[in-house]
């Protein structure tokens, strides 16, 4: 795994990670996941935070987040270049109570050698 620490004060808690994107599965080597423990079953809006940080390479335009929820999995593509500094809605999904759900992010993207950010994800109960 080749995740790197972001510059100080970058990200939600100043502890974001980054790596370079890979365009093929043969070149992909990095992945990570967020796994919540949810108190109740229900619909949740899932958000990912994309930090604003200066790097030598441009941010990826096609980060692939896989949301694993009660009914299966869905891949959501996010342009981290245009979303920097925001919480991006990945979608509204059904989750069971407990820790069976997840959001996964790997370096496999639609581009190569771009900066990919791994910072924070939150689950917000949907009304």
Q: How would you portray this structure in words?
A:
The longest helix is centred in the middle third of the chain and has 4 residues. A four-stranded antiparallel sheet has the order 3-8-5-6, with no helix packed on it. Strands 1-2-9 form a three-stranded antiparallel sheet, with no helix packed on it. The N and C termini lie far apart (38 Å). It contains one helix and ten strands. Helices cover 3% and strands 46% of the residues. The protein is mainly beta.
Q: What's the overall average pLDDT, rounded?
A: 93
Q: Classify the beta-strand content into a percent band.
A: over 45%
Instruction: State the distance separating the first and last CA atoms.
Output: 38 Å
Helix content: under 10%
Structural class: mainly beta
Shape: globular
In DSSP terms (H or I, runs of 4 or more residues), the helix count works out at 1
Question: Strand tally, please?
Answer: 10
Low-confidence stretches: none
Largest sheet: 4 strands, antiparallel
Rg: 14 Å
Oligomer: single chain
Strand order of the largest sheet: 3-8-5-6
SSE topology string? EEEEEEHEEEE
């Amino acid at each position: 795994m080749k995740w790197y620490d972001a510059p100080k004060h970058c990200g939600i808690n100043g502890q974001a990670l980054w790596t370079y994107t890979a365009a093929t599965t043969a070149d992909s080597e990095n992945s990570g996941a967020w796994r919540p423990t949810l108190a109740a079953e229900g619909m949740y809006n899932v958000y990912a935070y994309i930090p604003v940080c200066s790097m030598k390479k441009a941010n990826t335009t096609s980060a692939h987040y896989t949301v694993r929820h009660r009914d299966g999995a869905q891949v959501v593509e996010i342009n981290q270049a245009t979303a920097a500094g925001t919480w991006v809605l990945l979608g509204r999904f059904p989750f069971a109570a407990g820790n069976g759900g997840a959001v996964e992010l790997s370096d496999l993207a639609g581009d190569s050698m771009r900066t990919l950010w791994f910072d924070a994800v939150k689950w917000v109960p949907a009304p």
